[in-house]
Amino acid sequence: MIIAYAKSDTGKVREMNQDAYYLSDSSSEVKLFILADGMGGYKGGEIASNLAIKCTRNYIENNFKDTPKDRENLIQLVASSMEYANMIVYEKSKEDKEFEGMGTTLEVCLIYNNKIYIGHIGDSRIYRIRKDFMRKLTTDHSYVQKLVKDGTITKEEAEVHPKKNMLLKALGCNAFVEPDVSVKGFLKDDILLISSDGLTNMVKQEDIFQIATGNIEKAPQRLIDLANQHGGMDNITVIIIKSI
Fold first, then answer.
1. CATH label of the domain that carries residue 114
2. Is 146 within a domain?
């Protein structure tokens, strides 16, 4: 059995919340959790994030029943849903000058049979907590992450780098996109945390761990409160899922 809670907040600085999320109903056959952090102009980011979630959700829910439930086919289902969402958001951005250049990050977690089928684009993050260890399951598609990977800067320097928010990959900005897709185990008592960078830029990983392993129902709001106490420079969205 899976329980999930989520909260989203505009933060202290932004005028509008361009984050969006979706949690499947606990009774639903399809256990699907999605988060998107939109960007681009007035309203553009909000439209991109909501549209990406709607398209991804519809694609997976409409095709889940007829998809063979093996590893490769479920990975392909997640990847195809994101490619479909990318196409729709990209086409929408071409319709109106106001939406030009809009895009969004996208995190997709489809949970089936003690496994998480993960799709990832951008710099929102997915963590898994197992016992006393919190592991990041995604790699940021950002300029500073590339600098860290290349050995140009340290992880500590990346935290305060002026180009921290510069993305190398986002959904809806190009006609085609290649999401990162992977499969991880999701066992009893494991916790999955999905968040926009409005949380991870403001709150240290050890503090996220402490709160996420406490009262799971209150954890999303507590994490948002802490991000806001630290400045709330961006929209903040947190989804927490636990296998019980």
1. 3.60.40.10
2. no
d(CA 144, CA 159): 9
For the segment 59-101, what is each residue's pLDDT rounded down to a tens digit?
A: 999 999 999 999 999 999 999 999 999 999 999 999 988 899 9
Measured distance CA(182)–CA(72) in Å, rounded = 10
User: Is residue 53 one of the residues assigned to a domain?
Assistant: yes
Q: Is residue 21 exposed (0-12), middle (13-18) or buried (19+ Cβ within 10 Å)?
A: buried
Q: Tokens standing for 115?
A: 């496994």
| Domain total in the chain | 1
Q: Does residue 234 contact residue 10 with C-beta atoms inside 8 Å? A: no
Do the domain assignments include residue 14?
Answer: yes
Q: What is the pTM of this model?
A: 0.96
d(CA 42, CA 102): 10
